[in-house]
Amino acid sequence: MVDDRQGNSGGRPPRRPAGTGTGGGGRDRRGTGAPHRSGPGRARPAQPQHGDDRDGAQSRPAGPAIPASIEAKQLAPEIRGELSTLDRATADTVARHLVAAGELLDEDPQAALEHAQAARARSGRIAAVREAVGIAAYQCGDWAQALSEFRAARRMGSKSELLPLIADCERGVGRPERAIELARSPEAARLTGDDADEMRIVAAGARADLGQLEQALALLTSPQPDPTRSGSTAARLFYAYAETLLALGRADDALQWFIHAAAADIDGVTDAEDRVGELA
Questions:
Q1: Rounded distance between C-alpha atoms, residue 101 and residue 275, angstroms
Q2: Is the pLDDT of residue 58 over 70?
Q3: 231 partner at 20 to 30 Å CA-CA among 15, 206, 258, 271?
């Protein structure tokens, strides 16, 4: 099994649920707000004991307290627009819960999930809200709840590219074969850029889950990674490649790609530098 010390899902920085953040700018669909993603051989913890908790969230409509410093206007305008079908007071509360969820996602994903669930209890038919719950549940390692929420968000018309996340959740609930099927789908074939790389990483991880390391390597080298790239997605791709090489006994090659991962990792989302130190 591939060593999985790169952290939650290979170290991708978490997306702020439903375009939240303190800047009030446009919705960040693919940038530094994306959730952690999977890498080859990722060890997955058991499902949290709280499970979906949807009924519980709806039976506690008040939800967690929202800090007074958080304002609805901090939510991205695009998402505030999605809340326009709600009455003003409800929309304001939902928006503030979403902003709180986004701010807590890094340091306390369980608290972020509670805020997202409180938003869902008031506005469960809005795609952005369901996506927010999915992202927070994903960060908590609650793959079943995340999968359910991502699917709901897609049915409701989410504009985010959720297929790689859905595939990774399938891995999380113990269905790597299903993740591979999704990676082979016509929808996956239309992915480009970082989205395509994310799907490659997830598909390679699913292959590694099944002990198919050579197939995982083939996915990660089609096309061959470009070591001159930088950024979070590139760093995670290089890291996954290095991990797979290491699992196949190619330590010298693995070291080189850990070095590339460390150089690409301008946001510090992997422990590639530590791995270089271990192998050098």
A1: 32
A2: no
A3: 206
Residues 160 and 171: beta-carbon distance below 8 Å: no
Judged against a pLDDT cut of 70, whether residue 12 lies above it is answered with: no
Is residue 1 situated within a structural domain?
Answer: no
- What's the pLDDT at 71? 97
Give CA–CA dist 252/236, Å, rounded. 19
Residue 168 shares a structural domain with residue 135: no
Rounded alpha-carbon distances, angstroms, from residue 115 to 28, 100, 107, 119: 19, 7, 14, 6
- For residues 8 and 141, the answer to whether their CB atoms sit within 8 Å is yes
208 and 99 housed in the same domain: no
**48 DSSP 8-state letter:** P
Asked if 220 and 240 count as a contact pair (C-beta separation under 8 A), the reply is: yes
Give pLDDT, residue 30: 27
Residue 82 has which token pair? Answer: 């999605």
Q: Structure tokens of 175? A: 């269905």
